């Protein structure tokens, strides 16, 4: 077991104790997710009660120990959630926690609405937030330090006496400790006296750095026998590092959110903290077998919450194990772990390679073999050269897997024989101020026949797509299951104004999957046509391959 050593300072007397104390790095840490409370304080998040239930279900499935469900009484949604959750979810792992503050200044526990609402939520555990920064007591609560201590102790005791396990969130603990350590520690003592099970040190403004956290957690740990927890915001970008530092000093309860949601810059990202604690520090967090679903849970929550996650998010991001540089791919082809800090499968993620101008021969060879395309060394070299030239012209193959596949196939001497393009034409027809119609005509050759078809649409791509389908569907009925799902245009050299080159990306899908194709040209219709033809060819190839 890891051990860390600390000197301690008596915060009452200010004296530094000479004795050194060993803190064991814990064997296990309680994971407490606050997505449904602090996570929902993030700008842009607004969950329905049904959404909250889905999030709670997913978190329980992941095996977190506590799920903070909201602040009962703060809004009707949270009241309904606490009513429905125990009836509609069969919790297998998690305990639901109701959040609230201490009673108000000058209040009485027996008539305080917040405390009553926390009890009415009917949860085994509650989390109570209290001010531990003297500045906040004086300026935000506008009361005395003694009154803040009374509010904390009596409120905790009131809930403990009613059989609740009380987590005590000492708000602004780190700033409070820096400003007035005696008061910050006195608040913890009040909560301990009241019977709180866990003293949670909160970095509410999120500005603390790991070396400060280390000093302060060490002080607290040496002064309190009670379980220590932590709750870090990410305003200095150190929330997860601060949580790990605290655990290294003996904290055994970590609050945060899968995907790091939360007020302002968010909270400790549990999708990062859990793998670090488990896989790197050897500490038990969620059940071991659940680590492998953390990527899918992170993505599922992002869908429910409707905020796309950062592809570069450690462990669970789509780019977390994606390799682009030729040297990296070449080494990975020899040793899988050459550029990966863990095996991605441990967290349910996977290795990906993207092909671009940064590629070398190994990348092209791997991509071709993934697609079942046999390329000779010479063909690989030719593809690589062609690829780099095209990327220089503005193509971006890492986002266009469909066009990349065609490039690789063509290098073998293959050429699509579904159809041959003789010509195409697009006419924009403005009939009057309210109506605009685009008409496209394509002339193709297929099966030895000359095919001429016209399509109408609300724009050139729509009209060209219509004309192509009208010409080809009688020959290839599989086209009916191919759909264009997205169309993106990017101006590549904006300094050239309307003469600029554009890059068009088209996303397409069929019943089994999706692909992206690309076109680049100074003419947006030409660029669109290139991407469109590639899209149809890939679609036909897929129907042919069954
Ligand atoms: C650090 C955190 O993130 S804690 C969680 C914060 N979350 C939220 O605020 C979201 C939910 N909040 C709400 O719905 C509302 O703010 C409520 C229902 C809690 C309170 O609403 P209101 O009564 O209208 O008050 P308001 O929002 O203006 O908050 C200020 C009041 O809370 C009191 N208050 C603030 N912090 C605390 C605390 N830790 N303990 C007790 N009272 C507190 C203030 O003294 C002030 O009371 P006063 O108006 O009687 O002087
Ligand atoms: C309790 C809480 O959310 C905080 O102090 O940040």
From TrEMBL:
Q: Which gene encodes it?
A: leuA1
**Record GO biological process:** isoleucine biosynthetic process; L-leucine biosynthetic process
Instruction: Look up the record and name the pathway of this protein.
Output: Amino-acid biosynthesis; L-isoleucine biosynthesis; 2-oxobutanoate from pyruvate: step 1/3
What keyword terms does UniProt attach to this protein? Acyltransferase, Amino-acid biosynthesis, Branched-chain amino acid biosynthesis, Isoleucine biosynthesis, Transferase
**Pyruvate carboxyltransferase domain sequence ranges:** 29-292
Q: Name the source organism.
A: Acidithrix ferrooxidans
Which principal EC class is assigned to this enzyme?
Answer: transferase
Please report which protein family the annotation says this sequence is part of: Belongs to the alpha-IPM synthase/homocitrate synthase family.
Swiss-Prot/TrEMBL catalytic activity = pyruvate + acetyl-CoA + H2O = (3R)-citramalate + CoA + H(+)
Q: Which Pfam families match?
A: HCS_D2, HMGL-like, LeuA_dimer
What name appears for this protein in its UniProt entry? Citramalate synthase
Q: What EC numbers are recorded for this enzyme?
A: 2.3.3.21
Looking up InterPro entries in the UniProt record yields: 2-isopropylmalate_synth_dimer, AIPM/Hcit_synth_CS, Aldolase_TIM, Citramal_synthase, LeuA/HCS_post-cat, LeuA_allosteric_dom_sf, PYR_CT
Q: Name one GO molecular function term.
A: 2-isopropylmalate synthase activity
